[in-house]
Design brief:
The chain is of the alpha+beta class. It has 2 domains: 102 residues; 107 residues, Ribbon (Umud Fragment, subunit A). It has 3 helices and 8 strands.
Amino acid sequence: MRKALNIIKNIFVWLMVALAVCMMIFTVVSVNTFDRNDRDLFGYKAFIVLTDSMSKTDFDAGDLVLVKEVDPSTLKEGDIISYTSQNSQNYGETVSHKIRSLTTDANGEPGFITYGTTTDTDDETVVTYTYVLGKYQFHIPKVGKFFQFLKTTPGYIVCILIPFLALILIQGLNCIKLFRRYKREQEDELKEERAKIEAERAESQRMMAELMALKAQIDSKQAENGAAPEDASTDTAEAEKSEE
């Protein structure tokens, strides 16, 4: 059971690490790529859809559209393009609309009449070749909303800060656990060392007691052996006196 819990804990930790790393990579890539006209990713430019002007047929607000740079002269009616808007309402923003027809502007420059399929209303100005950013290839639903959320303070806290704090907390708990295990092992070693010293001391005391008992026994025998010769000399002296 404990082994299974450790495996689950390790899997959870690695998932947290993977999530945090993925969030960091996604954040770095998105900040340096999404909605940047001068940047591309694997040959594609990525833009976040800001309105539902194409939701009737193709993509919704919050989706991420990927476009590829093409020769504007190869574009035709029905193609969806991303371009830098020159309209008064959204000047300078990136817009992804469908080409209704090919035309020229007031200066005679070739361009396109574009429209959003939801309203079916033509855009205010002609999109000339200069402002075309690329031809629509495909879209990824809701990624743009997630990126916009990620750029907010709550998004940063939820997607980046909390995972890293969780990792720091988990690693801190692991360090505390390892320190406690180290201290416990040290205490066990000290207990074993003390028990060994006590055992050696008891053995020394036992051997000392045996030596003292042996010495006492030797002294006793020596005392007995020393008394016997003294008695014999006394008897001899008495015998000599009686002969005189």
